[in-house]
Amino acid sequence: MLNRLIAVILFLPVFVHAQQTDAADTTESVVHADSIPLRKAFIIDYDNDLFTFTDYYYTQGSYIELDFPVLSKDPLSHALLHTHGGKDLAFGITYGQQGFTPTSIRSDTVLHGDRPFSGTFYFGLNRSSFDVQKQLFVKSEFDLGVIGPYALGYESQKFIHEHTNNPPPHGWQNQIANDVMVNYSLIAEKDLLHWRPYDVWKVRHDHFDLVGYGSLNAGTVYTNGGFGLLTRAGILNDDRNMQEAPVHFQCFFFAKGEMKIIAYDATLEGGLFNTSSVYTIRKEDISRGVFSVSGGIGIADKKFSVEFYELFLSPEFEGGRNHGWGHIKLAFVL
Fold this sequence. Notes:
This protein is mainly β.
């Protein structure tokens, strides 16, 4: 029964992810926000710990998003949370995959006290909105997929290693067992501060901003909550999020710090319904509070944006290590 359900989920034409922005001057922001149509965009995100010269724990993740205005007609999209009284910015469908390994991929035996092998694969639907008056951005997302061998984590890592002259991975036969992934996530960002000392090219730009951040995940794979701060410095315009085509050229550095409270993580503890995993981390050994810091650079114009950052995460379980990975994002406005 479980295998049939997972197979159906893998082929559901589902959904997810998007973003937009803000303005420093409220009067101008109202005109600006109301004049922006729903976004059409193609976005690629890729994570890999090779960017930090490591190869363990969260080892790679890929994400593809397509934003189309027609998705606003989907009743499921309108069931997602949004800013009350704000404006919808984008509706998108998404594919995502993640892979996790222990500190060594050279052994076919279970490495007790280390992270389990695990992989996730999902499709999703998302909705993002922005309230100009409150300077509040909200993104909500619903994902359906699978955790376990059906997620093709081994096949993905094997392919990457074959094409980067790295050793073939061993030990994936001990990964977290197949189970259903049903997850809902919510992200809220609140503008706290802007600094604009002068104009550039007769176009008003911010040169520093500070954003408060909160997140919530609930489901069969991830259940957690987080909060933190994001700051940027450089040439910024009234569109905070570079995925949403900026009015003018942007180039900036950014940094983020986040504290996350972990209630459940199936990539460590095993699936919610299938308890037949060969090896998992004991619940009492899970770190219920983890901290991450990240920093990078972003460049954007009206049709294209690129972003790169490196992130470092505190240990997720007793005896675990600090870990880091790199992230690159490419966005094309259609």
